[in-house]
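Internal tracking record. Fields below are filled automatically when a chain is submitted to the structure queue. Please do not edit lines marked as system-generated. If the sequence contains nonstandard residues, flag them in the REMARKS field before resubmitting.
Queue: standard
Priority: normal
Entity type: single polypeptide chain
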Amino acid sequence: MKLEIAADKQFVHETRIAIRWGDMDAMGHVNNTVYFRYLEIVRVEWLDSMKAAPNPAGQGPVIANAFCNFYQQLEYPGEVLAKHYVSNPGRSSFDSWTTLERVDQPGVICAAGGATTVWVDFPSKKSSPLPDWLRAAISP
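SYSTEM-GENERATED OUTPUT FOLLOWS
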């Protein structure tokens, strides 16, 4: 499936993820739960690259919701190209979007998903305003 990414989404990161034999289920394709792992891998890589990993004694990102739409099955062997986008920065949250395609089938989206990320002050267990440096990185 060809999927157009809306203009309000900003491309921020991409990574390649090997499809492992153990990612498949009894039906011979990547299990639906593993797609969420792929979404997590690209999201965490991007956050780590920005030095935005969670700090249990301070602040960091928490996923408030996550979704994935499945268009074509992925199978072993192969490699996934995960492209990560961000949008809609609010007071304490932003949205992220990811497309998953096989490296050997460029532009053909096998799945697309995303999440709402909330910036949290962990000691108080409350949302906190996005840091200025993060807001600058995710604002168009």
